[in-house]
Amino acid sequence: MTTPPYWRKSSHSGGDEGNCVEIAALNGHIGIRDSKKPAAGHLTLTRKHFTSLLAHLASRP
After folding, report:
1. What letter does residue 39 receive in the DSSP assignment?
2. Which residue in 3, 8, 11, 61 has its CB near the most CB atoms, within 10 A?
3. How many Å apart are CA 47 and CA 9, to the nearest integer?
4. Cα 18–38–26 angle (5° rounding)?
């Protein structure tokens, strides 16, 4: 039996504002999906690429 992934929103997402992404740990990778359309699928990144993505987003003005 496989445990389903635990998807979570950032604490910066706020309440029901709608523009949110969710992340989950997926067998050594990180999954990213649109919280409004979870059934539409997800993007899977290695932890290294996810860390690089976060660093890039944090550096933007």
Report:
1. G
2. 8
3. 17
4. 120
CA torsion sign for 22, 26, 30, 34 is negative
Residue 60, φ and ψ in degrees, nearest 5: -75, 140
d(CA 30, CA 9): 13
pLDDT in tens, 12-57: 666 666 678 899 999 999 999 998 899 999 999 999 999 999 999 8
Maximum pairwise Cα distance, the chain: 45
Tokens found for residue 35: 């919280």
pTM for this model (two decimals): 0.78
